Amino acid sequence: MNAEYVAELYRTLDRTGIAIWIDGGWAVDAVAGRQARSHNDLDIAVEAKALDALRQFLAERGYRQTLSKYASQWNFVLEDMDGRKIDVHIVVLDEQGGVWSDAVDGIAYPAGSLTGEGVIAGTSVRCISAELQLRFKTGYPPRAIDLQDVAVLCGILGRTVPDTHKQEAK
Q: Are strands 75-79 and 85-93 parallel, antiparallel or unpaired?
């Protein structure tokens, strides 16, 4: 999945009135304002009330839900014939600006988490805040891509990379 595709998808969804927030690795790149690594999927958060419209929009573009033991009503993956994957996280916004999802079946998005702004391929995007991304990325044993993402986020936030997420010198 390349930056131009992600940016065009974001713009098209936005024009149709389907608001999404970029999450995951692309959100790290968005707040950094540059693509720091390659991505095999696109993580997004979408309001529950827009889910049917999102599903229809993506189905018209050939996306189908993949089978996964981790799928739930709050999180699932859609894939198209070209192998592009979109990892969908459903949220509910309350009137006080709180963000809710099922913390058992999904990712818990605390209030203020959907306040990030970034840029992908010249397109301004809504995304998960850098602060919350760092909290997510340091909340589980890291993969190699998480080490990269945490280094980028710590740089943006002016923080020291935690010992648990430092990359070994090669």
A: antiparallel
The Cα–Cα gap between 113 and 127 comes to: 8
- Domain region containing 26: 3-129
8, part of any domain = yes
Q: What is the largest CA-CA distance in the chain?
A: 49
Report how far apart, in Å, the C-alpha atoms of 65 and of each of 25, 55, 58, 79, 162 are: 21, 9, 10, 6, 36
Q: Which amino acid is at 90?
A: I
Q: Total structural domains in the chain?
A: 1
**Rounded CA separation 79/23 (Å):** 17
pLDDT tens digits, 68-126: 888 888 889 999 999 999 999 998 877 655 565 555 455 667 777 889 999 999 999 99
Provide the whole-model pTM: 0.90
E-state strands within 37-148: 41-47, 64-65, 75-79, 85-93, 99-100, 116-120, 123-127
- We report the CATH number of the domain holding residue 71 as 3.30.460.40
Q: What is the pLDDT of residues 10-20, one digit of tens each?
A: 999 999 999 99
